[in-house]
Amino acid sequence: MTALGKLLRTTAFRLALAYLVVFAALSMVVLGYVSWHANALIAGQLNATVNAEITGLAEQYRQGGIRKLVAVVDERSNRSPGGSLYLLTTFSGEVLAGNVSAAPAASLAEAGEREIPYQRTGETTTAPYPAVVRVFLLPGGYRLLVGRDTEERERLSAVIANAVQWSLALVVVLGLAGGVFVAKRVLKRLDAMTETSRTIMAGDLSGRLAVTGSDDEFDRLAQATNAMLDRINELMAGLKEVSDNIAHDLKTPLTRLRNRAEAALRTATGEEEWRVAMEQVIAESEGMIRIFDALLLIARAESGGARGQIAEVDVAEVARGVVELYEPLAEERGARLTVEALGQIRVLGNRELIGQVVANLVENALNYGTTDGRPGEVTVSALALGADARLVVADRGPGIPPQDRSRAMERFVRLDTSRSRPGSGLGLALASAVARLHGGALTLEDNAPGLRATLTLPRAADAVLAAAETPKLASPRPAAAE
Amino acid sequence: MTSAMKLLIIEDDREAAAYVVKAFSEAGHVADHAVDGLDGYARATEQTYDVLVVDRMLPKLDGLSLIGRLRAEGAKTPVLILSALGQVDDRVQGLRAGGDDYLTKPYAFAELLARVEALARRGGPAAAETVYRVGDLELDRMSHTITRAGQDIPLQPREFRLLEYLMRNAGQVVTRTMLLENVWDYHFDPQTNVIDVHVSRLRSKIDKGFDKPLLHTVRGAGYMIRDGAR
């Protein structure tokens, strides 16, 4: 019962039912039209036949009077047992000639066309047949009846009615069967999909909907759903990795913070010692806040949430600005920081994020891009290459070995060489996330020697157009970075 | 240094609010506390405050809507938004909603104090002056010249803007992030001491060779330019 109820509630079944009703109605209309026209046609034929008879009889009557008419009617009555009907009577109703035995007297009283029941001469046992007749009043009180059996018409009507019944029955049966078949097929696949979805919802994210390979709408739905599940899986894996890393990399400073506080409680005596301990605790917590901020920013950038503040950004200006900001610091550390960024290179993006990424890369280069004993040498350049804008931060330090480069862009990865130096291990991950947010990429290359980090961003569309029209910038200003 | 300010802290975390109210009173200011958006809105419309400190996520009426209502009624009281959300977009949203400054949690109280004091002073007379004076140091905003004891001091354009910002807030603590925001227009937190290096460069230009230093480092907070004699 529930299975039937389910079947009846399916969209497929309801659709099939609706089509069935429409088709049945349509076949009714067609058959009705056909039968109406066939009837009209047959009636026309009957009329024509009767008219021809009458024309012939009228001719005979004109030539030979009533005598001739009686002879002709007699002759025709005997000639055609199936076809036409004739009856010639006197005024009183006495039959002179004809093949109709029992015609109602009233039907002969007046001239005109009518339908009457009749019986043939010699046939008494059968029931009267219907016929179309025409009655004429002749001079001398004679009455002539000429008619035609309408049995053919009746038979045709019966055939049509039969056809209507059968076809209707056929339409209903086939339609119902088709509806049930389609609905069952659809139900089966939908049920399979629902079942798989349930197991996936229950936690088994590895489940996938079956794809039959027929490339129908169910297959396409299954494929899209599977692609969505793959994406969800990826995100979940990423989330798990991040939470593992967060657990590790935030617990480390938390432990340090706790240890410091405990040590201070245990051993600190004077106010100065308390103060130092408190300051260390604050510094430690600030480091953690920084990690949090970076993580949040990466998460927002990766989910596309930070795209909100999109405007035209001149990355050449960003490069000059960041270098100007860091140049005194570089000088203090005995490093050389130079910029190569001419004119304007516009991209659509978030100036804050791009600026922060370039600043991170410069800080990285200043922190790690030095080989002991040699002064650091960091170059920031901005250039336009076709449809791309490139921001390059290059140093002459030890660089990153090729096998470690893609790993270096993951969150919290700190290569062994940099573990001893300060840093959260999020700088390159953030740079990479921001690049992807802008539809670009971060690439790490060998600067022979040193590291060359390139942030590739798509240029603003109209900027590319303008550059194509005027290949050379009118007057590139030299970078103003001391 | 500054005259006492009257502040309204709209913050649903009572403990955090109590700490901030106490810290403000230690700094010589008077701070009221409202626990939710509607309470805060009522107080802000009934009384006059110098600065409102509004948490972004509040019960009953959220921070941005509250600011929106006040601004719609023509209230010009400076508003500092406190938010755990932080980051680029949220800041822009907050400022667009009518906030005047934005600070992300967790923050150092020194940062909050410096920013609130800067907001209270913003509409003050210093903003309109063309010549800033601190002791014998003079900065002319029209001619872009700096003199100390009558002696010309040449500065790079960025150093000029740095000094200009410090002098506009003379006698007040200015934090590193305030400098980065107002002089460089970046809102991130540099992991290195870039700002310190810029300030010490500036200091070597305006203080070196003069017996009285004007540009002071305020430990744990930032910098302040003032005439030490006062």
Description:
The complex is a heterodimer of chains A (482) and B (230). With 482 residues, chain A is of the alpha+beta class. Chain A has three domains: 2-155, Beta-Lactamase, CATH 3.30.450; 236-301, Helix Hairpins, CATH 1.10.287; 306-469, Heat Shock Protein 90. In chain A, 57% of the residues lie in helices and 16% in strands. Chain A has a five-stranded antiparallel beta sheet with strand order 2-1-5-4-3. Chain B is 40% helix and 21% strand. Chain B contains eight helices and twelve strands. Chain B has helices at 14-26, 37-46, 63-72, 87-96, 109-122, 157-168, 176-184, 194-206; strands spanning 6-10, 30-34, 51-55, 79-83, 101-104, 131-134, 137-140, 145-148, 151-152, 174-175, 215-218, 222-225. Chain B has a five-stranded parallel beta sheet, with helices on both faces. In chain B, helix 2 (37-46) runs parallel beside helix 3 (63-72) and helix 6 (157-168) packs across helix 7. The longest helix of chain B has 14 residues, at 109-122. Chain A: Keywords: Kinase, Membrane, Phosphoprotein, Transferase, Transmembrane, Transmembrane helix, Two-component regulatory system. Chain A: One of its GO terms (molecular function) is phosphorelay sensor kinase activity. Chain A: Residues 184-237 form the HAMP domain.
What is this structure's SSE topology?
The complex is a heterodimer of chains A (482) and B (230).
Chain A lengths: L1 H8 L1 H69 L4 E6 L5 E4 L6 H5 L2 E7 L10 E9 L5 E7 L1 H51 L15 H51 L3 H33 L7 E4 H18 L3 E6 L4 E4 L1 H18 L8 E9 L2 E7 L10 H4 L18 H11 L3 E6 L4 E8 L2 H9 L13
Parallel strand pairs in A: 7-9
Antiparallel strand pairs in A: 1-2, 1-5, 3-4, 4-5, 6-8, 9-10, 10-12, 11-12
Helix pairs in contact in A: 2-4, 5-6, 6-10, 7-8, 8-10
Chain B lengths: L5 E5 L3 H13 L3 E5 L2 H10 L4 E5 L7 H10 L6 E5 L3 H10 L4 E4 L4 H14 L8 E4 L2 E4 L4 E4 L2 E2 L4 H12 L5 E2 H9 L9 H13 L8 E4 L3 E4 L5
Helix pairs in contact in B: 2-3, 6-7
